[in-house]
Amino acid sequence: MSESVIAKNPSAGRDFNLLEVLEAGIELKGAEVKSLRDHRASLRDAFARIEKGQAWLYGLDIQPYAQAGPWAPEAKRVRRLLLHKKQIQRLEGQVARKGYTIVATKIYFKQALVKIELALAQGKQQFDKRETIKKREADREISRILKTRKGSTR
After folding, report:
1. Do 131 and 63 fall within a single domain?
2. I need a surface site. Which of 16, 31, 59, 67 has the fewest CB within 10 A?
């Protein structure tokens, strides 16, 4: 299976604890697919919401395709997500009961289809973000020390 990443959400891992990841299809118009092939998308503010038994994606910014003319769809329109009914019901229950949110983390081509990776997420507090930064810096320091030790034994 070939997978070609179009865009990633850089703030998803920083601002949220990603608990569970799932893949969904996305309902697009023809000109939007052509824009995605040119990597003209941004997931920075993208999130999903469950409304009336349907999953909807908000905040996905797909810039209009240049040759689409006046028929190009709106860049930040609400798009329907293609999920199974049981997946939608389970997500709806978790979001309602536990106060989680659904964040878009990555959009990509899987074979010829456009897929979006969604994550069930819980918002991080400021101190959680600081802890994440401290842990990442400590890991870098450890790997740097290990590299210098390996280089000195040769």
Report:
1. no
2. 67
Residues of the domain holding 36: 3-123
Residues 103, 60 share a domain: yes
Query: Does residue 101 sit in the same domain as residue 45?
Result: yes
- How many structural domains compose the chain? 2
Per-residue pLDDT tens for 44-95? 999 999 999 999 999 999 998 888 777 778 889 999 999 999 999 999 999 9
HEC assignment per residue over 11-60: CHHHHEEEEEEEEEEECCCHHHHHHHHCCCEECCCCEEEEECCEEEEECC
Kindly report the pTM of this predicted structure: 0.78
Q: Give residues with Cβ within 8 angstroms of 114, minimum separation 6.
A: 6, 25, 26, 28, 33, 36, 107, 108
